[in-house]
Amino acid sequence: MRITIEAIDIQEVEKIIFLLKSLNIKNIEVIPGPSGQVPSITKGDKKVDPRALFGIWKDSPRSIEAIRAANWKRDWNA
Prior knowledge:
The chain is mainly alpha-helical. It is built from two helices and no strands. The radius of gyration is 19 Å and the shape is extended.
């Protein structure tokens, strides 16, 4: 079976490949477009300790309502 997805730029291709790899799909083939550009996918650094990020908002607490109000009103077409 074959599925064809055409992306408009290399960033979209990288997002699609990342999604497919996260689903553990074994046979993924990337065919370069007219520009010949093939995306590079790199794995994250697992040595980074995320505990350093804990409490970064303690001095400026935010509620989920404030976060939604600030971000859901964005102009997504800009």
